[in-house]
Amino acid sequence: MMKLFNTILIGITSGSIYSLMAIAIVLVWRSTRVINFAQAGLALASSFVGFEVLTRTGSFWIALPVALLAGAGMSAFIEYFFLRPLLKRSGDESQEIFLPIIATLGLLGVIKAILSFIYGDQNGTISPPVSDKDFIVGANSISMSPMRVLILIVVIVLVSSITWLFQKTSIGLALRASSYSPEISRLAGVRVDLIRTCGWAISGAAGSAAGMLQTANGSGSLSPDSLEFSLLLVFGFVAAVIGGLESLLGAVLGGITLGIFISFVLMYVSGSLVFISAFLILLLVLYVRPQGIIGKKVGRRA
Amino acid sequence: MSLVITDLCVDHGAIRAINGVSFSVSTGQLAAVVGSNGAGKTTLLRTLSGLNKATAGNAHWKSTNLLQAKPEKLVRKGLSHVSEGKSVIPELSVAENLDLGALWRRNKKESAQSKEAILSNFPRLGERLGQRADTLSGGERQMLAIGRSLMSKPELLLLDEPSLGLAPLVIEQIFQSIRDLTTSMGLTVLLVEQNAIGALKIADIGIVLNLGKVAIAGPAQTLIADPAVRAAYLGY
Ligand SMILES: Nc1ncnc2c1ncn2[C@@H]1O[C@H](COP(=O)(O)OP(=O)(O)OP(=O)(O)O)[C@@H](O)[C@H]1O
Ligand SMILES: [Mg+2]
User: Fold this and answer.
1) Given the CA of residue B18, which atom of ligand 1 is nearest to it?
2) CA pair distance A20, A162, nearest whole angstrom
3) Which of A131, A215, A289, B167 is the most buried (most CB within 10 A)?
4) How far is the CA of B11 from the centre of ligand 2 (A)?
């Protein structure tokens, strides 16, 4: 009974980080219809920025916002200088689909190569800012530590801020309108190009938060080849697709569902099946509900 | 003359959709652009609002060159385009669709006044502010599309087939609204329609487009009254 409870707790915590990554992927998808495979690379790069700030200041609470800003800046930079010109130049519709995939995959490689060049074999570390020792209640150890509580709080704060931004602010309305119908939005006076860059920036921030938390929650070690970031890329993507790719709520549900599922595989089956099982749940969801858990069938209109 | 179009040519690849069109509209006039399927009406409006690129010619709204600017810029210069089909965003609520048209406006007090004025013109929208736009009837959606365009405080309004797919009674209401708004708000309107008679009845001037050219233009009443025009272009 205790094991079951703990499995779910672990699943929710790690799932909440996947949710952030999924949100990052969904935001880019919604604003430009691009699956950004470089998202994990951006998360990695901004986590390194976070690491640098952490070594200099010693404060996780300065490092985290700086990493978020760095993630937002890099993501906006990539959209503006790299993807936009590429999409403008792409000719037919099949190019429009394949070019960004190849481009962002290439970008992932480039970012990793640059980081490897800068850091070599030297790893960064982001150690938990608060204790990661499990709480003990009576004779039982509960899989919830101050660090896990902190992760959940940070994720909840970020997700609610993003939701608030989308639902309650002018820029949120512009972001939603531009993703549903760029043409009508332009006719209404929305600077759709600028709004798309904003969408990428918010996505970059969400992704870098995922990167920072994932590192602090995991081994704490940060390297261009670390397992944490391969996991983040795969799980973020799977969570986004399970959630239907279109909504923030879907991304959150997708992340938590995936987290709990993975946690069960880890605790009850085998740690070596984690990757396979992520793809298994992806296939299962796509088979039963191709539009994702709460996705609706929508195409892109003019 | 405030809207002046001269020798305008627009191509879709190898197809010349607009072929040397010239006409002008004075401030405060309602001009009906009529013509059958494929005459080039939609292409004309999309070019004036910056969605399509012109191949040759000129088009000015007062001192603004319409052929050089992007749609989002032209909105800020007082031009508003309600595109073909119901130009609303179905996933957004009625209120959000309206607000969208005024996002760029700095003065929020004025935007709120515009909204109030629009809702008093289209009270049915006011009763449905929280509803998603795709739950509206066709006529209500067209009202919303026009309402959204008015939120941008336009001086020049481009309307592409507001009667499309509506019942005759609803068409009459929409046309009457367009006429009333033109007069009360001092708008200049370019109304594109296949429903030629309906549009010409409320218009000050009429322009008949045929295969990308102006076949005939003049005061709307004269066009309706001319038996030759009726037989050749208005289809009755
Ligand atoms: N995107 C496009 N690509 C190629 N040809 C086009 C395109 N849009 C319009 N055309 C062609 O240009 C011509 C004019 O089309 P347009 O849509 O402007 O006509 P219309 O008068 O609005 O017709 P309707 O009353 O049916 O809406 C047609 O021959 C059409 O086939
Ligand atoms: Mg048309």
Assistant:
1) 14
2) 10
3) A215
4) 15
| CB half-sphere exposure, A66, CA atoms < 13 A | 16
Contact call for residues A80 and A197 (beta carbons, < 8 A): yes
pLDDT value, residue A296: 62
Ligand 1 site, residue B121, Cβ cutoff 6 A: no
Contact present, A31 and A178 (Cβ < 8 Å): yes
- What is the nearest CA distance from B169 to chain A, expressed in angstroms? 27
Confidence of residue A217 (pLDDT cuts 50, 70, 90): confident
pLDDT-derived band at A295, boundaries 50, 70, 90: low
Name residues with Cβ closer than 5 Å to ligand 2, which is an ion.
B 41-42, 84
The distance in angstroms from the start CA to the end CA of chain A is: 53
Diameter over CA atoms, chain B: 52
Neighbours of A283 (CB within 10 A): 10
Domains and CATH numbers, chain B: 3-234 (3.40.50.300)
Cβ–Cβ < 8 Å for B166, B135: no
- Secondary structure string (H, E, C) spanning A71-133: HHHHHHHHHHHHHHHHHHHCCCHHHHHHHHHHHHHHHHHHHHHHHHHHHCCCCEECCCCCCCC
Structure tokens given for A175: 């972001």
Q: Is there an atom of ligand 1 within 6 Å of B14 CB?
A: no
Query: CA B190 to CA B207: how far, in whole Å?
Result: 10
Residue A55 pLDDT: 93
Which parts of chain B are beta strand (E)? 3-12, 15-25, 30-34, 56-61, 64-65, 79-82, 156-160, 188-193, 205-210, 213-219
Residue-wise burial string across B167-183, b where 16 or more C-beta atoms lie within 10 A, e elsewhere: eeebbeebbebbbebbe
Residue nearest to atom 5 of ligand 1 (CA): B12
From the CA atom positions of chain A, what is the Rg in Å?
19
**What are the domain boundaries of chain A?**
2-288
Ligand 1, atom 12, lies closest to the CA of: B17
Residues of B in contact with A174 (CB under 8 A): 100, 103
pTM summary value: 0.91
Whether B161 contacts B129, CB under 8 Å = no
pLDDT number for residue A128: 87
Q: State the smallest CA–CA distance between residue B77 and chain A in angstroms.
A: 10
Element (H, E) at A140: strand A140-142
Check B101 against A188: CB less than 8 A apart. Answer: yes
Q: Is any ligand 1 atom within 6 A of the Cβ of residue B173?
A: no
The residue among A9, A4, A26 whose CA lies nearest residue A210 is A26
- Nearest-CA distance from A176 to chain B in Å? 8
Q: Around Cβ B95, how many Cβ atoms within 10 Å?
A: 18
Structure tokens at A259: 């987290």
pLDDT tens for residues A45-59?
Answer: 999 999 999 999 999
* Fold entry, domain A2-288: ABC transporter involved in vitamin B12 uptake, BtuC (1.10.3470)
Which residues from chain B sit within 8 angstroms of residue A170, using beta carbons? 99, 103
Atom 14 of ligand 1 has which residue's CA nearest to it? B40
